[in-house]
């Protein structure tokens, strides 16, 4: 069944900083059930815990008030707490709620955070909500380019390949080339290998060969410089 999550549309204003100090405590939110474990050293502030609880309560009692509540609640959080709350929603497999929070998280970034996109995509494919993945890629394309030298690009590509997101993988690859992958930016060998294997798995032999050729040209240029 298709998700009723509204369309995601991001703009990326300059990143602002906050000097708000938060008291932080270690926490486990709710019963463990089938959730993933808390990451070692991971902590949630009191503000983040309260935001998560308030969002879950609103979702349960009156889902029509989620968007107004997100605007009211999340605007009070500093960036670190906002991201921590978002990741905790993913850990609890509350993906539809996390997807509604995701635009607010990305608005705190001056450029798209590809690592958070990867986290969202992995959670969506894990919980059977992968019909929303293309919508996330739509928003990346609207931005026009991505950071091809960002190590989080590896995570994004792997998330798409592992989630069997064929069309979205192709679209991200085209966006990478548009953003200067292999021209302005050097080709990361690991990213190239993940893409090549993914395209072969998807039956995209021509694209796999193209990636392989790009990697060979890049390697030759590096050797030529030495």
Automatic annotation (TrEMBL):
<dbReference type="GO" id="GO:0009658">
    <property type="term" value="P:chloroplast organization"/>
</dbReference>
<dbReference type="GO" id="GO:0009507">
    <property type="term" value="C:chloroplast"/>
</dbReference>
<dbReference type="GO" id="GO:0000373">
    <property type="term" value="P:Group II intron splicing"/>
</dbReference>
<dbReference type="InterPro" id="IPR044190">
    <property type="entry name" value="THA8-like"/>
</dbReference>
<dbReference type="GO" id="GO:0009793">
    <property type="term" value="P:embryo development ending in seed dormancy"/>
</dbReference>
<protein>
    <recommendedName>
        <fullName>Protein THYLAKOID ASSEMBLY 8, chloroplastic</fullName>
    </recommendedName>
</protein>
<dbReference type="InterPro" id="IPR011990">
    <property type="entry name" value="TPR-like_helical_dom_sf"/>
</dbReference>
<dbReference type="GO" id="GO:1990825">
    <property type="term" value="F:sequence-specific mRNA binding"/>
</dbReference>
